[in-house]
Amino acid sequence: MLFTPTVIKNLLKKPVTRKYPYEVREPFPNFRGELVIDIDQCIFCGMCVRKCPCQCIEVDKEAGTWACDLHECISCGYCRDHCPTKCLSMKDTHRKPLLEKTTWIEQGTPPKPKKKVEAPKAETKVEAKKEKPEVEKKAAPQKGGKK
Amino acid sequence: MAITVIPFGPQHPVLPEPIHLTLKVEDEIVKEAIPALGYVHRGLERLVEIRDYHQMITVCERVCGICSMIHGTCYSQCIEELMDIEVTDRAKMLRVIWSELHRMHSHLLWLGLFADAFGFEALFMQFWKVRERIMDINEATAGSRVIVSVNIIGGVRADLSPEQLRWILSELDIAEKEIKDMQNTIMNDYTVKTRTCGIGVLSYDQAYELGAAGPTLRGSGVASDMRMNGYGAYGELDIEPIIETAGDCWARCTVRFREVLQSIDLVRQAISKLPEGELAVKVKGNPPEGEVYARVEQPRGECVYYIKGNGTKNLDRLRIRTPTFANIPPLLTMLPECELADVPVIVLSIDPCISCTER
Is A109 helix (H, G, I), strand (E, B) or coil? Predict the structure, then answer.
């Protein structure tokens, strides 16, 4: 039996596998894991919306919201690579499983109307609108998917 | 003798993906096999109408879960040829490194599944143990284990630092030793040889005439490997197609096993010849009108991409011919006159990737 030496070696060694939920491997630093946004830095330019291959991000410049359908996100990292203010980043660990269908919505401070053009392709002119009182960063998962 | 009809698949323990074969059996001997496909059709090619040509890379990578990098490379090569973009040498070499890592983990996956097909589960675990090491290299360098997503139009978007290169080389040394420990078992073990030698024979002429691709073709003695054409940076590397002449399941298995070792060698060569330079060139505008073909060698064989641009950001047409599609006619030639118990081994010996085939 040509496989016998391998069998004997394996018998004398400890298991190769880990007892996963109790013992977790050190994550690799470049891993494309959970997407996170620093909403205070976001200028709502919509670049992530245009680059996203699965079209899971929605940005409302007037309301100052940034929404992501986590069930459609494929963690490709294109939005992070193209973000002009680098407010999007990715953790080196997986997102925890979701127990119900949710859309991740972040509420930020909408930019002042007119003023500088942030993105290479500026969006349609936003009419002057009332300034919202400053809102702290807050994740507001809502029930029911969008669309 | 009466003919019995036995349905094989789409749900079968040996099949990783769904294909249905209607087997007409006479006394445990298969007389005819009729395939039925279409269980996992996703219509990915039509997405060119709504996704722009940059976004299509991620779609193409999802045509096949196991050789995603090579699909992405082939699509990028098509677009780069259409738009007349010259990719930097470093990007080309980095694509070779990740492509060969993908070939290795795909073949190791297959070797494990093949061992499982004839009931050798311990060997299956050994091959998957080695595969885990390759997957870790992908994860640490590209950010994901299978869908590495490093291709962009005009180059790559991840780089390998000198420390990472050294780490890859040391990991490959360990992997090579672990794979070579298995060599004697997979090639010479009595059980393995009994289940594979002389089973599902495909002659040189049959393989050539039926248009087989990849290890199925090379296992029958035809020296055909798209990497010999020197696409990407393969022209700068020493590469010879790996051939076996027996044409049976054992030959196809041996070709794949030796290709794993060849891929390790290619990664080492690519790392030693990795030039300095930019990772990607800037791409402006949309693909012009025109048609382009690109051919690459995937773990399963030759893959052909055809694209037609129309001057807008969406392509007019994307057409993919995957290697498993080419390997189904040879499979139907191998099956008649084989034992019913050998059907799983023969079906697996072409390395069927049905999700690729149906896209």
Answer: coil
Exposure on the CB side of residue B224, measured as CA atoms within 13 A: 21
B307: phi > 0 → left, psi -120 to 50 → alpha, else beta; which?
beta
Q: Does residue A104 surpass a pLDDT of 70? A: yes
Count of C-beta atoms within a 10 Å radius of residue B181: 15
Amino acid letter, residue B275: P
Q: Any idea which fold A26-122+132-147 has?
A: Alpha-Beta Plaits (3.30.70)
- CA dist list (Å): B66 to A141, B70, B115, B355: 34, 9, 18, 10
* Rounded CA separation B196/B252 (Å): 9
Specify the 3-state DSSP secondary structure of B301. Answer: strand
pLDDT band at A100 (very low <50, low <70, confident <90, very high): confident
Distance CA B196, CA B30 (A): 17
- Which structure tokens are listed for B139? 């994860």
Length of chain B: 359
Interface of A with B in 35-74 (CB under 8 A): 51-54, 74
Q: How far is B185 from chain A (nearest CA, A)?
A: 6
Give the pLDDT score at A125: 44
Residue A86 φ/ψ region, left for φ over 0, alpha for ψ in the -120 to 50 degree band, beta for the rest: left
- Give how far Cα B235 sits from Cα of B26, B69, B228, B258, B273, Å: 50, 19, 7, 20, 12
Rounded Cα gap, residues B197 and B203, in angstroms: 14
Structural domain spans, chain A: 26-122+132-147
Q: How far apart are CA B215 and CA B226, in angstroms?
A: 12
Give the range of the structural domain holding residue B99, as residue numbers without chain letter: 4-358
What's the pLDDT tens digit per position in B88-101? 889 999 999 999 99
DSSP letter at B40? S
What is the count of structural domains for chain B?
Answer: 1
Model pLDDT, residue A117: 52
> Is the pLDDT assigned to residue A126 strictly greater than 50?
no
Across the A:B interface, residue pairs with CB atoms under 8 Å apart total 52
CB atoms under 10 Å from CB of B303, counted, come to 29
CA–CA separation, B45 and B312 (whole Å) = 17
> In this complex, is the C-beta atom of B135 within 8 Å of any C-beta atom belonging to chain A?
no
Measured between beta carbons, the chain A residues lying within 8 angstroms of B140 are: 28, 30-31
Position B54, amino acid? H
What is the rounded CA–CA span in Å between residue A60 and residue A69? 14
For chain A, give percent helix, strand, coil, nearest 5: 15, 15, 70
> Phi first, then psi: what are they for A65, rounded to 5°?
-115, 150
Supply B221's token pair: 């003695």
The enclosing domain of B209 has a CATH number of 1.10.645.10
Among B312, B209, B306, B261, which residue's Cα sits nearest to residue B103? Answer: B261
